[in-house]
Give the backbone structure.
Amino acid sequence: MIIRILTAVSLCLAQPALADVPERLEAAFTGWAQQVGAKNAIMTIRKAGQVQRDVAVGWAPDMVVETASLSKAITAVCVAHLIDSGMWAADTTSKDVLEEGIAGITIGALLTHTSGLGPDQTQASMMWWLDRSGRKARDAALRALERDTQTATSGSYSYNNENYAVLGAMIEVTTKEAYEDYCAKKVLEPAGVSTARPSARTQRFLPWGGWEMTVQDYAAFHWHAFGPEGIIGSDPSQWPSADLGGGVQYGMGMFQRAMRDTSNYWHFGALCFPGRFNIGSYAVIWLDDYSVAAAYDICPSWDDMNALDSALVGAVFQ
């Protein structure tokens, strides 16, 4: 099982065209779905946070779907609220909160995958955790923090679900509430999200890949947090980020790229369990203007993800 990510995407070189963007996005998305063999695919299209149209192939447009690694942004924004409230700081460490494991791993490093934790042992464990009830964030966190040897380098970017497992465990210890209850109350409900819940299939991966909701609700959350008035989007410079080169950064559970006087925010997700369960997801905001959230019933390859991003960018910035 692999949750894939992609960094060198969502480029834009011109202002969005004013006419027919939703029509072009629909054509690009349905064409891509046919090309990659997705029998079921849905996407919502927004402009400045306002719904323009919903696109559905197979699935009903308001079906509740797995968000996969898009769940990380929910955890990151939950962390942002704890920092904003003064309960944490970016340099608060996992040991400060959990009182276990190695010292010196800051919240900022966990958010940006620069903690030095590795290898990502969730990749093997999730195959066994699929379709089982309960939560495994604390178990995954302590296993990562107590490893005798770490294979990543502190201060260098290395994408690892364990970082967000640690954050999920820390949220519960600090708030004395279940992760999903606290983050729904502080992050999702204020965005108007009503369909979000821990997935029955992937709930054990909740802080890094186990939320489900409609794509419309994910788009509402994304805009509320990362749009121009959001806790992240209003001033991304105040939050931790890791430079990945080429103008791309990993920030608060999202990749980001500064463009003119704003930023683009995007992330892919994929849950890949051959013969059992395969799904992908994607969300992006371009220039505080058009945004989409999508889900589909395939485990996308790197080429598939590049093709989707390129098709949608071409539709918006034609």
